[in-house]
User: What shape does this take?
Amino acid sequence: MTGLDDTEAATFGRRARDLVAAVTEAAAAPATYLIVFGENHPHFHALITARAAGVPAGRRSGDLFTLRTEAADPAAATLVPTVREAYARLTASGATAGA
Assistant: This one.
């Protein structure tokens, strides 16, 4: 993140906000996490993941990653078209501008 210029940071911020909103909507999630990391490479990675309502309180926030092997659901990739549609609609309408 520290390597982004002002325009890149502003663009990333808007797109991340809109994509988090789209994932939250498509997954009907009570929470969606945006995690940025990149200590092993000279660039960063952004992970956006929806948290289902049934995830116990002790497995939320950073502890959500402990579920990746036991709760991974490859079939959930079917949400990609729904997220794409929500993102297109949200960014076209400006619905997330005040979020």
